[in-house]
């Protein structure tokens, strides 16, 4: 056994130091550097070297790229189309997948449903470290899941888990959660930087060596990011977040890292009494609008991963009694809202410096792409002038600092999706305007913000 080495790691950015510092010199965060002890730990059944799970005593050799064996490891479905979409088409054998989310979001429920469905066709093992076996069994019974095939284990020792997994030979393994796992040679409490880092690395090497798909449940901090060191996200293959507020029945599954598929895919689920149910047509739930036309409300078309998504955005502009008017954005970026207000003043001739501005993306979805710009500006103008926009109007486009309307990717697909849902008019960037006329839909292409304001 190699002697344990001490190091100091920043929990925010993962930078390592030889001694403790009050501030990380890389990310400039204070009081984020913690000590951990790292030891080279052998796994029962073979010695591993690195995250890739290569056997240490094998003779290393240099190969050309075309000489590498491309043995196909076929994906297998999780049983949920939306889950498979976020994973890039299904679960890859030997992959390590990290699933994070707020408490009560439904992480354990989603994985229990997935494991019960997969247990009928392949060996599956569910490791619970936070709940007792009786609690998990009660949940499965309440959800009406098949329970005669799934194997359960209550354990928090990573060494024991891998030892038992070697005997059981599962094809898929769930660890709930990585924050309660521990290793005997690490002299710190479960959940610390060193325990989380070494436990995740140990399990990742095990997954690569024996081609076992491992799903790790991860906690989040108060700011919504995954708890633990950044190296946790580096060593795993896929990182996804299950998001959703407690007052909403809808949950969104979004991928932030995926070595086997596209990132930023979005899966939508509905939390019901019988567990999580897939939402096959997300645009329908985000477009539950009233029949009465209201000022400040408009529909925009987002592009989430590989599909378009229609979402309603609402804006409220009201006179402020404060010296510093409020700017509140729910589901949109606060800094982008401030920038668009400046563009509206400079190139649209509309000053809102004495107005409170509130923006809300309906359905609890978070929008990060720039195609929201034009829809948000026109919603602000609609609310300020108390002039309702047509119900059959859809808008998308990026607005530049000089007031130009810039094109966005997949414009044709966005317009087709809007036409499919019955929209008759669209205001889009001029370069996104289709060359052929779409039956039953009027598409208006604009080059400047002033042109868009004249249309409405």
Structure overview:
The protein is an alpha/beta fold and 456 residues long. It is 25% helix and 26% strand. It has eleven helices and 23 strands. It has a nine-stranded mixed beta sheet with strand order 8-7-9-10-6-11-12-13-14, sandwiched between helices.
Which structural class fits the helix and strand makeup?
alpha/beta
**Main sheet: strand order:** 8-7-9-10-6-11-12-13-14
How many separate helices? Answer: 11
Main sheet properties:
9 strands, mixed
Kindly summarize this structure in a few lines.
With 456 residues, the protein is α/β, with parallel strands linked by helices.
Supply the key terms.
456 residues; alpha/beta; 9-stranded mixed sheet; globular
Which helices and strands appear, and what pairs or packs with what?
Elements: E1 5-10, E2 16-17, E3 33-38, E4 48-49, E5 54-55, H1 81-87, E6 96-101, H2 107-118, E7 124-128, H3 133-143, E8 151-154, H4 158-168, E9 172-176, H5 193-210, E10 213-218, H6 231-235, E11 238-243, E12 250-258, E13 266-272, E14 275-278, H7 282-286, E15 297-304, E16 307-319, E17 327-330, H8 334-348, E18 355-361, H9 373-385, E19 393-395, E20 398-399, E21 405-406, H10 411-420, E22 425-429, E23 442-446, H11 449-455
């Amino acid at each position: 056994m190699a002697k344990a080495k001490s190091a100091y790691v920043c929990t925010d950015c993962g930078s390592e130091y030889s001694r403790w510092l009050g501030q990380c010199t890389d990310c400039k965060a204070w009081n984020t550097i913690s000590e951990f002890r790292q030891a080279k730990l052998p796994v029962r059944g073979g010695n591993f070297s690195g995250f890739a799970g290569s056997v240490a005593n094998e003779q290393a050799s240099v190969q050309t790229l075309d000489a590498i064996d491309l043995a196909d490891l076929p994906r297998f479905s999780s049983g949920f189309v939306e889950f498979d979409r976020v994973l890039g088409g299904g679960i890859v054998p030997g992959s390590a997948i990290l699933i994070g989310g707020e408490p009560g979001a439904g992480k354990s429920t989603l994985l229990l449903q997935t494991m019960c469905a997969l247990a009928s066709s392949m060996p599956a093992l569910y490791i619970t470290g936070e709940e007792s076996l009786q609690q998990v069994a009660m949940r499965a019974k309440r959800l009406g899941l098949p329970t005669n095939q799934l194997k359960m284990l209550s354990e928090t020792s990573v060494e024991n888990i891998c030892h038992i997994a070697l005997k059981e030979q599962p094809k898929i393994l769930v660890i709930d959660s990585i924050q309660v796992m521990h290793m005997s040679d690490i002299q710190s409490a479960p959940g610390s930087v060193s325990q989380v880092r070494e436990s995740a690395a140990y399990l990742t090497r095990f997954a690569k060596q024996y081609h076992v798909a491992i799903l790790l449940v991860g906690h989040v901090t108060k700011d919504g990011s995954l708890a633990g060191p950044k190296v946790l996200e580096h060593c795993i293959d896929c990182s996804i977040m299950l998001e959703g507020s407690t007052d909403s029945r809808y949950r969104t599954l979004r991928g932030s890292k995926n070595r086997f598929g596209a990132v930023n895919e979005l899966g939508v689920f509905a939390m019901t009494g019988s567990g999580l149910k897939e939402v096959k047509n997300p645009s329908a739930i985000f477009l539950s609008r009233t029949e009465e036309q209201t000022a400040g409300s408009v529909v925009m078309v987002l592009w989430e991963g590989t599909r378009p998504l229609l979402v309603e955005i609402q804006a409220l502009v009201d006179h402020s009694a404060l010296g510093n008017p409020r700017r509140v954005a729910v589901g949109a970026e606060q800094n982008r809202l401030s920038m668009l207000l400046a563009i509206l003043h400079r190139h649209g001739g509309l000053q809102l410096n004495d107005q409170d501005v509130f923006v809300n993306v309906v359905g609890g979805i978070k929008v990060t792409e720039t195609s929201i710009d034009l829809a948000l500006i026109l919603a602000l103008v609609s609310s300020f002038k108390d002039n309702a926009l047509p119900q059959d109007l859809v808008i998308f486009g990026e607005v530049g600092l000089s007031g130009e309307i810039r094109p966005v990717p997949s414009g044709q697909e966005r317009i087709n999706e809007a036409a499919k849902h019955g929209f008759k008019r669209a205001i889009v960037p001029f370069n996104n305007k289709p060359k052929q006329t779409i039956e039953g839909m009027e598409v208006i292409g604009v080059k400047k913000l002033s042109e868009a304001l004249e249309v409405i």
